[in-house]
């Protein structure tokens, strides 16, 4: 059964040329969301997209992001995608800065959103060979709970984790080690007491968690 | 095999970005991923690196400027050619959109630690380090995934064909449902499974990633005196562009 795309998402740089063809080539678009930074040229590009969408009756949302913070960009994109549902979205990841591109591709991989890239020379739209599955589901449920707790508490010890989640120390130690091996969590020595090891999640780990991070 | 650490990095044009990555991530081999117009700059950096650390300390790899699939292909060949069991780190700063997309495909496929070191800011992507594509599915899930099609197939038939106990096939199908790739239905008391759109793409991806390398000979990237890696002749991307 043919899947109808209702929402087109895109990253915008200084020109809308890398995004508008995706809108123009489809007749079943109800809504578009573009992500751009605060540069004057990017804002001008967003206005051009706004004018086009208005002319063809597509509801448009423009989201301005901090172009230097990839995790924040990805988090904002992820929230929008989750609110709508990945199965209803096609993401054009061509425009914008490297940070915006990376955030968009990352979001597509994590959320299972189909993505396209507009080749500048041929003007052809190429579907990206991304792994379109919920990547975060590759962590087990206990691993996700532990990661969520570490992310929330920002520097808990293993003992505090044991108390917080009500599980045994060997079990928590096992899950923590797995997360450390995955590169999602690190152990840091406490500033005031070198005997204490504190657990720290990488900032982008929150992108692997559902809902309230 | 030697334990060597590779730092693969694009070039943003700012020396501070490259230096940030080099300071943060120790390496034995620096691999500069350059667009054609950046090759001169890359060779200069490589020459300086080799003066300090030896002739094998730096590779320069030229990437097609606006070709996602071509870049995926080239990077796969590069990565397959590394003779190492050590760590491979990828820095995305300076990559153009096609290269970002291609790099991230491979980063997730191979569980490569991937960062962005730019403007004095370092972001680490939430890629499960060391978790390759194969790790994402157990053996039965992979076999079921390869067997399934968009048309429903009965779980009983799958089990018979794959010579796997039916409960195990059932479990694999449920695992694939959880991963968003398969849909189950029931008819006359029998359970049927079919690939959805995501599952179809993933099956292609798994098949491509598991395809044997077409290269012959030892899996080592040979380098010229200039340090430029000699790669095998270009081959067509295996994925069909629709």
Structure explained in plain terms:
The complex is a heterodimer of chains A (213) and B (242). Chain A is α/β, with parallel strands linked by helices and 213 residues long. Chain A is built from seven helices and eight strands; from the N terminus they run βαβαβαβαββαααββ. With 242 residues, chain B is α/β, with parallel strands linked by helices. Chain B has helices spanning 15-24, 39-53, 68-81, 97-110, 139-147, 155-162, 166-178, 197-210, and strands at residues 6-10, 29-34, 58-62, 88-91, 113-118, 121-124, 153-154, 182-187, 190-195, 222-223, 229-230. In chain B, α3 (68-81) packs across α4, α5 (139-147) packs across α7 (166-178) and α6 crosses α7. The radius of gyration of chain B is 21 Å and the shape is elongated. At the A-B interface, α4 of A face α3, α4, β5, β6 and α8 of B.
Outline of the structure:
The complex is a heterodimer of chains A (213) and B (242). By secondary structure, chain A is an alpha/beta fold.
User: What string, H for helix and E for strand, traces the elements of chain B in order?
Assistant: EHEHEHEHEEHEHHEEHEE
Let me know the number of strands of chain B: 11
Low-confidence stretches of chain B: 213-242
Structural class of chain B: alpha/beta
* Widest sheet: strand ordering of chain A: 3-2-1-4-5-6
- How are strands sequenced across the largest beta sheet of chain B? 3-2-1-4-5-6
**How big a fraction of the residues of chain A is strand?**
15-25%
Number of strands of chain A: 8
Mean pLDDT of chain A: 89
Average predicted confidence as pLDDT of chain B: 80
- N-to-C span of chain B: 40 Å
Coarse shape of chain A: elongated
Number of H/I helices of chain A: 7
Low-confidence stretches of chain A: none
Largest interface: A-B, 48 and 49 residues
């Amino acid at each position: 059964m043919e899947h109808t795309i209702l929402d087109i998402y895109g990253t915008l740089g200084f020109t809308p040329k890398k995004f508008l063809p995706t809108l123009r080539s489809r007749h079943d678009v109800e809504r578009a969301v573009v992500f751009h930074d605060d540069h004057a040229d990017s804002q001008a590009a967003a206005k051009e997209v706004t004018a086009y969408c208005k002319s063809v009756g597509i509801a448009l949302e423009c989201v301005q992001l901090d172009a230097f913070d990839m995790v924040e960009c990805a988090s904002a994109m992820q929230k929008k995608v989750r609110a709508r549902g990945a199965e209803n979205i096609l993401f054009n990841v061509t425009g914008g800065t490297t940070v915006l591109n990376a955030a968009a591709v990352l979001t597509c991989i994590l959320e299972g959103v189909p993505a396209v890239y507009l080749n500048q020379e041929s003007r052809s739209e190429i579907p990206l060979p991304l792994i379109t599955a919920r990547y975060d589901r590759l962590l087990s449920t206990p691993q996700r709970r532990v990661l969520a707790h570490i992310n929330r508490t920002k520097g808990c010890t293993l003992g505090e984790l044991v108390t917080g989640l009500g599980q045994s120390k060997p079990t928590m130690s096992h899950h923590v080690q797995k997360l450390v091996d995955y590169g999602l969590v690190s152990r840091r020595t406490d500033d005031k007491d070198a005997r204490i090891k504190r657990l720290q999640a990488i900032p982008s780990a929150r992108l692997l968690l559902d809902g309230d991070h | 095999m030697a334990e060597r650490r590779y730092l693969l990095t694009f070039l943003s044009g700012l020396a501070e970005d490259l230096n940030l990555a080099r300071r943060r991530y120790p390496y034995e081999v620096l691999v500069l991923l350059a667009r054609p117009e950046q090759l001169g700059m890359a060779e200069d950096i490589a020459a300086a690196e080799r003066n300090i650390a030896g002739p094998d300390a730096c590779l320069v790899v030229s990437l097609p400027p606006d070709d996602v699939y071509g870049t995926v292909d080239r990077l796969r060949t590069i990565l397959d050619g590394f003779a190492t069991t050590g760590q491979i780190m990828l820095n995305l700063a300076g990559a153009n959109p096609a290269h970002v997309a291609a790099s991230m495909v491979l980063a997730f496929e191979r569980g490569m630690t991937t960062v962005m070191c730019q403007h004095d800011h370092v972001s680490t992507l939430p890629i499960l380090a060391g978790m390759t594509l194969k790790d994402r599915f157990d053996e039965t899930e992979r076999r079921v995934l390869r067997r399934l099609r968009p048309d429903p197939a009965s779980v009983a038939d799958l089990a018979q064909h794959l010579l796997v106990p039916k409960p195990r096939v059932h479990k694999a199908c449920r695992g694939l449902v959880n991963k968003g790739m398969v849909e189950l239905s029931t008819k006359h008391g029998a359970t049927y499974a079919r690939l959805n759109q995501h599952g179809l793409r993933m099956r292609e991806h798994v098949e491509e990633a598991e395809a044997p390398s077409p290269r012959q000979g030892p899996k080592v990237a040979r380098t010229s005196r200039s340090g430029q890696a000699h790669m095998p002749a270009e081959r067509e991307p295996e994925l069909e562009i629709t």
